[in-house]
Amino acid sequence: MIYTVTLNPSLDYLVRTDALRPGRLCRTDSEALYPGGKGVNVSLVCAALGLPTRALGFIAGRTGALFASLLSETGVEYDFCRLEEGMTRINVKVAAREQTELNGAGPVIPPEALEELAGTLDTLGEGDWLVLSGSLPAGVSADAYAKLLGRVQGRGVRTVVDAAGDALKNALPCAPDLIALGLHELDELIGGAPHSAVGVAACARELQQTGARDVLIACDKGVVYTPQAGSALYLTYAPGEAVQPVGMGTAMTAGWLYAQARGLSVPETLRWAVAAGCAARSAPWLPGRAEIERALVKTGAPHTV
Q1: How many CB atoms neighbour CB 37 within 10 A?
Q2: Section 123-144 average pLDDT
Q3: 172: number of Cβ within 10 Å
Q4: Is the pLDDT reported for residue 294 higher than 80?
Q5: What does the mean pLDDT of the chain come to?
Q6: Is residue 242 exposed (0-12), middle (13-18) or buried (19+ Cβ within 10 Å)?
Q7: How confident is the model at residue 192 (pLDDT cuts 50, 70, 90)?
Q8: Residue 241's pLDDT is what?
Q9: pLDDT-based confidence at 242, cuts 50/70/90?
Q10: For the purposes of burial, counting CB atoms within 10 Å of the CB of 210, is it exposed (0-12), middle (13-18) or buried (19 or more)?
Q11: Residue 243: its pLDDT value, please?
């Protein structure tokens, strides 16, 4: 089972308009409301690929109830802790000539609620995956992911961290099986992130020295995958219209997990990760299996860097 943790899930309100004019009335061409958050998105794409998954995290208020209702409609299993105060955030994403995002803060997570969530991880064991994704909400310390990783250590649980800043930095000594990040997150960790595949791979090796195992880094034109053993690989994105960027990184993580579940080779693992990301980039929301398989056909073979 793939368990995903989203400490700060969201209702994602996606709207399209011909132009965003600040200070003026703007009418939408289309609109949609989805359950969101990085870990939730990983679960949604994993489920689309036929992988068993359960989403964990926190919800609060009436927006939390709506979030749970929408997630139920997708068929994804979930077990969210309900908070007594606050509300699940609403993230507004406006697609015009370019995409503008306005993300809510979300509820404050008290220490006892975090402990309740941590307790749900005690059932995980050999063969399970734990995916920790997204930003840390108010009231949560920067070592929260490290503590959750520590909760499952020694039980055969494989782990993935898709985070940024101190949350990611503090998780590295816990030796996650995969860290997934972009150039912006890499720059936060090391300062002055390179843009060449060779330079990015060198940075990935530095992160491995601090504890990370496999490292997946999304760059401007492709992805660098640096496994713990073997050479780093680079694969450019398949051509296609970029409809919206929501869920691209999380879809890559789900594609990587799918390849791991099937026991595919390192090059094929990267191909599935990139194909899933490209399918998300070209989809109105998150991609299904058919969209990912079509993107896979357009995805070439990686080369060593």
Answers
A1: 30
A2: 93
A3: 20
A4: yes
A5: 93
A6: exposed
A7: confident
A8: 61
A9: low
A10: exposed
A11: 57
Please, are residues 254 and 180 in contact by the beta-carbon 8 Å criterion? no
Angle between helices 38-48 and 289-298 (to 10 degrees): 80
Q: Of 279, 281, 275, which is closest to residue 299 (Cα–Cα)?
A: 275
Express each pLDDT in 159-187 by its tens digit.
999 999 999 999 999 999 999 999 999 99
* Inter-residue contact 219 to 197 (CB < 8 Å): yes
On whether the CB atoms of residues 253 and 129 are closer than 8 A, the answer is no
- HEC profile of the chain: CEEEEECCCEEEEEEECCCCCCCCCCCCCEEEEEEECHHHHHHHHHHHCCCCEEEEEEEEHHHHHHHHHHHHHHCCEEEEEEECCCCCEEEEEEECCCEEEECCCCCCCCHHHHHHHHHHHHHCCCCCEEEEECCCCCCCCCCHHHHHHHHHCCCCCEEEEECCHHHHHHHHHHCCCEEEEEHHHHHHHHCCCCCCHHHHHHHHHHHHHCCCCEEEEECCCEEEEECCCCCCEEEECCCCCCCCCCCHHHHHHHHHHHHHHHCCCHHHHHHHHHHHHHHHHCCCCCCCHHHHHHHHHHCCCCEEC
Distance, in Å, from the CA atom of 118 to the CA atom of 165, rounded to the nearest integer, reads: 22
- 0.85 cut: is pTM over it? yes
Q: How many residues does the chain have?
A: 305
Check residue 245 and give its pLDDT.
63
Phi-psi region of 157 (alpha: psi -120 to 50; beta: other; left: phi over 0): beta
The amino acid sitting at 283 is A
Burial environment of residue 176 by CB neighbours within 10 A (0 to 12, 13 to 18, 19 or more): buried
**Cβ count within 10 A of residue 30:** 10
More confident residue, 20 or 287: 287
In DSSP terms, which residues pair with 261 in a beta bridge? none
CA 197 from chain centre, in angstroms, equals 22
